[in-house]
Design brief:
This protein is α+β, with helices and mostly antiparallel strands and 280 residues long. It has two domains: 61 residues, no CATH class; 197 residues, no CATH class. Helix content is 30%, strand content 23%. The protein is built from seven helices and eleven strands. The strands form three sheets. Strands 4-3-2-1-11 form a five-stranded antiparallel sheet, with no helix packed on it. Strands 7-8-9-10 form a four-stranded antiparallel sheet, covered by helices on one side. A hairpin with a 6-residue loop joins β9 and β10. The longest helix is centred in the N-terminal third of the chain and has 16 residues. The chain is globular. The N and C termini lie far apart (82 Å). About 18% of the residues have low confidence.
Length: 280
């Protein structure tokens, strides 16, 4: 004799109750379950009859179809962090710098030295840099010329970057360093963009594009040049000479703000200003 037959013999014939009775029995079942003591791992059924129990079980079966979709496995940790950073970036105010403004960035090295740069938003105005204690004028590229040499403007606040991940990834693969389509180039493209000013939708697209790159690794015990705890996203690559390199950029573990690339120092301040030597 199987278990189901034993249940039938014990409970006797049980007809499904009318809708009102079903609701009452389900309420009794829930009330009895709630009164159980969890430490005994036991459910107290109280006065629920076999017929009521059968009806309640039947109701549960009806409410839980056999083809219920099971949630997919969680995203890999690097992808989860990058998507979280993208969501935070997308929620930031959308400030559009004027062409005549400057992107101010202050970084700090592990030895305490600080560098400051005022980069032209559109790449055509003369900027300024304080690097390792030395002041350097950064000439803008106007009409294809910088002083006596030919040039192409390099905007500190690019206005034509993609705002979706797939188009951004394709753009990143078009190396501006003349070394072909390698992951090393991709890493330098990412670091170069992440360290500058990007509008919220563009920065979000950048992080989502990087999330598509294979081989990402998370460093949750990382620290930036100032000693602040950060989350590092890294991947290994090889340059055209076969020399290995590790590309990395760092996030604040709470705000997911970009705080540096692990090489050029920690970003401690950044903003849009109207002229060189002005600070946000």
């Amino acid at each position: 004799m199987d278990d189901m037959q034993l249940l039938r013999d014990f409970a006797g014939p049980a007809e499904l109750p009318v809708p009102g009775e079903l609701a009452r029995k389900r309420a009794e079942l829930l009330a009895a379950t709630a009164s159980a003591r969890p430490r005994h791992r036991r459910v107290l059924w109280g006065g629920v009859t076999a017929a009521g129990l059968a009806a309640a079980v039947a109701a549960v079966v009806v409410l839980t179809p056999a083809d219920t979709v099971v949630s997919p496995s969680p995203e890999p940790e690097p992808v989860r962090i990058l998507h979280a950073a993208a969501a935070k970036a997308r929620a930031l105010p959308d400030l559009v710098p004027r062409p005549d403004q400057f992107v101010y960035t202050k970084t700090r090295l592990a030895d305490g030295r600080e560098n400051e740069t005022w980069a032209s938003a559109d790449g055509t105005h003369d900027g300024l840099a304080f690097v390792f204690g030395h002041e350097t004028q950064v000439a803008g590229c106007r009409d294809g010329k910088r002083a006596t040499s030919r040039c192409v403007p390099h905007p500190a606040a690019p206005a034509d970057l993609p705002t979706d991940a797939d188009t951004m990834l394709a753009s990143l693969h078009k190396s501006t360093y003349g070394e072909g389509d390698t992951r090393h180039d991709l890493g330098r493209e990412v670091v170069d963009l992440a360290g500058g000013y990007l509008r919220p939708a563009v920065r979000a697209a950048l992080y989502e594009a990087v999330a598509k790159v294979p081989g990402l690794v998370v460093r949750t015990d990382a620290k930036d040049a100032t000693g602040r705890p950060v989350v590092g996203i890294t991947w290994n690559s090889t340059n055209e000479h076969g020399i290995g390199n590790q590309d990395e950029f760092l996030f604040d573990p709470v705000t997911f703000a970009y705080v540096g690339d692990g090489t050029t120092g920690a970003v401690v301040s950044q903003g849009i200003v109207d002229q060189v030597r002005q600070r946000p």
